[in-house]
Specification:
The complex is a heterodimer.
Chain A lengths: L3 E4 L2 E4 L5 E7 L5 E7 L5 E8 L5 E2 L10 E5 L2 E6 L8 E8 L4 E3 L3 E5 L1
Parallel strand pairs in A: 2-11
Antiparallel strand pairs in A: 1-3, 3-8, 4-5, 4-9, 5-6, 7-8, 9-10, 9-11
Chain B lengths: L3 E4 L2 E5 L5 E6 L7 E6 L6 E6 L5 E4 L2 E6 L4 E6 L8 E8 L7 E3 L3 E6 L1
Parallel strand pairs in B: 2-11
Antiparallel strand pairs in B: 1-3, 3-8, 4-5, 4-9, 6-7, 7-8, 9-10, 9-11
Classes of the chains: A mainly beta, B mainly beta.
């Protein structure tokens, strides 16, 4: 099955700064999905990213806070902007890779 | 209607036991029901998945039972091992490359020797 590489794996950031998370898929995929997983919680979808169009955001998430790029069929980035301690979470990307939805290993973000 | 319910929240079984995790959904448009296993510090890994045209699917020690009329499905882990200790998420989706996955709240499983 396909592999999704995600980086950084973890980071500690100052409040008010931004962090960009990258996801690379080893095959072309139609949609990429970005999730947030707060400590001890389930996964919540942030947005869906299709190449060449603006991402579609779920209720409670906005583009100004979580801008997403999808420049080609194998790559996407999520930026967490103007961070606050409440943004401390694990961020994961995902894609349908033919045999199911595959996930990256996640980015553990701590905002101090 | 997009919600997926999951129980129990946590589960402790002896090695060799058969933990059962139950899930329920409302949206009859869901067409793909995967189970994910997540270890601490790792992303979720697809364990097994089922579509509503079958009532049961087995892969190794893992079995999904699916009841379309009740809109329920469950995961059974046969001969459970300490290495199965993880968080398990059921999920539901329309099941194409365009569709998002809705996750249940998760079950923390501990298998004690």
């Amino acid at each position: 099955s396909a592999v999704i590489s995600q980086k950084p794996s973890r980071d500690i950031c100052q409040r008010g700064t931004s962090l960009t998370i990258q996801c690379q898929v080893d095959s072309q995929v139609t949609m990429m999905f970005w999730y947030r997983q707060q400590p001890g919680q389930s996964l919540t979808l942030i947005a869906t990213a299709n190449q060449g169009s603006e991402a579609t955001y779920e209720s409670g998430f906005v583009i100004d806070k979580f801008p997403i790029s999808r420049p080609n069929l194998t790559f996407s980035t999520l930026t967490v902007s103007n961070m606050s301690p409440e943004d401390s979470s694990i961020y994961l990307c995902s894609a349908w890779t033919g045999s199911g939805y595959t996930f990256g290993s996640g980015t553990r973000l701590t905002v101090v | 209607q997009q919600q997926v319910k999951q129980s129990p929240q946590s589960l402790i079984v002896q090695k060799g036991g058969i933990p059962i995790i139950n899930c329920a959904y409302e949206n009859t448009a869901f067409d793909y029901f995967p189970w994910y296993q997540q270890f601490p510090g790792k992303g979720p890994a697809l364990l097994i998945a089922i579509r509503p045209d079958v009532s049961e699917k087995k892969e190794g020690r893992f079995t999904i039972s699916f009841n379309k009329s009740a809109k329920q499905f469950s995961l059974h882990i046969m001969d459970s091992q300490p290495g199965d200790s993880a968080t398990y998420f059921c999920a539901a989706s329309m099941g194409t490359s365009y569709d998002k996955v809705i996750f249940g709240p998760g079950t923390s499983l501990s298998v004690i020797p």
